[in-house]
Amino acid sequence: MPALDFKALLQQERAQKRHERERQQKEEVASEEEDDDDEEYKAPANFAARVDAMLGAVVTSNVSPAVTLPEEGQDMDIMAVAAAKIVEESQQAKHCLHARLEPEYLSTAMTERNLAQHALVGPLHRVFYLPEYVSRELEEKVVEITHTMPAKQWVTLRGRRLQCFGGKPTEDVASFKPKVLPPWIKQLCQTLTLAGIFGMEETPDHVLLNEYQPGQGIMAHTDGPFFRSRVAILSLGGPAIFRFKRRLATAEIEGGKEDEQQRPVGTVVLQPRSLIVFEGDAYHEHMHEILAVEEEMVGGEEGITPVLNLATAGEGLKLGDVLRRALRVSLTFRKVNKPEQERCVARLSSQTK
Ligand SMILES: O=C(O)CCC(=O)C(=O)O
User: Fold this and answer.
1) pLDDT grade, residue 84 (50/70/90)?
2) Total domains in the fold of the chain
3) Nearest Cα to 203, choosing from 57, 321, 350, 30?
4) How many CB atoms lie under 10 A from the CB of residue 261?
5) 53 Cα–ligand 1 center, Å
6) What is the distance in A from the centroid of ligand 1 to the CA of 210?
7) The domain spanning residue 161 has which CATH number?
8) Taking CA atoms, which of 39, 91, 135, 306 is between 20 and 30 Å from 267?
């Protein structure tokens, strides 16, 4: 949609009216002059119709307007400013959502990896850590896209902001309505398959974008059966410590073992540009969380929490080091766990293409 300058249109309309009035005054020798603004209040239809048309375009563009629509009869200046703001923010959202990543920025991420070489050894199984999984250029670009995303695109949840791409998860996966991924998100999903992180038929189709300010985190949770049980999380911006905790059975919670639940089984230092992948035991039998703190100690306050990636999380990193949080952006890549017959139909239709 081309940029519309409503302020300029309004000024043009006013100038025409003024010109017409002067012409009439000369002809009829008017005794009373009408106030400019009064006249515009009486005849807003022309401009209002254009605002309506523009809003129609915004609505059909699938980007939600970022400001409240002006009421009928409101001052034309307010309408012009509000309309211009709607257009600007919807264009900004479209710009961010339709962005594409430069192919050369993606080359590091799509380099083939042997996941087994990145397996972390420790008290829980099937966790992988890939330091420097993406280039700095890619990190900068993705952080820039997310930072310029208008506020209206974000949902706030317990302090942090997030966006969900690929469709809103439902209680029952059968009623899930998938949505097309923005091009730059799709590119990232494809690089994960090209790198061998996900199988050819496992390319992620659902992505959660989380933004954490220092002091923000995510509560202990499992990702559940809605997704297939391999998840990859890309970390950008600042560091954080990812904590795995054992999932307690109801009987254990009732038996007063909540304290034990508080103690992580293992932690992984998530450095900027790294990728953590987990599945199996780590996915099904453990919860994961990030504490809502401004700084945290590697290995915990007592230095006894296992740090599964101490050897690869940064040169010289050791127990007791303090990590200061900075603005962090993460992308969680998963594949929706569609029923088997739906997967077969998708497979067959892709084979016949
Ligand atoms: O930001 C992160 O690293 C964690 C995200 C996460 O746990 C999730 O999306 O389920």
Assistant:
1) confident
2) 2
3) 350
4) 15
5) 41
6) 7
7) 2.60.120.590
8) 135
Q: How far is the CA of 26 from the centre of ligand 1 (A)?
A: 72
Residue nearest to atom 1 of ligand 1 (CA): 330
Structural domain boundaries enclosing 311: 103-351
Mutation test residue for ligand 1: of 143, 164, 222, 233, the one with most atoms within 8 Å of CB: 233
Cα 315–chain centre separation: 30
Atom of ligand 1 nearest to the CA of 276: 3
Token pair 């409503």: residue: 6
Which tokens go with 149?
Answer: 């995303």
Chain segment 147-172, per-residue pLDDT in tens: 999 988 999 998 899 999 999 999 98
Alpha-carbon gap, residue 130 to 174, rounded angstroms: 34
Q: Same domain, yes or no, for 275 and 334? A: yes
**Is the distance from CB of 309 to CB of 268 less than 8 angstroms?**
yes
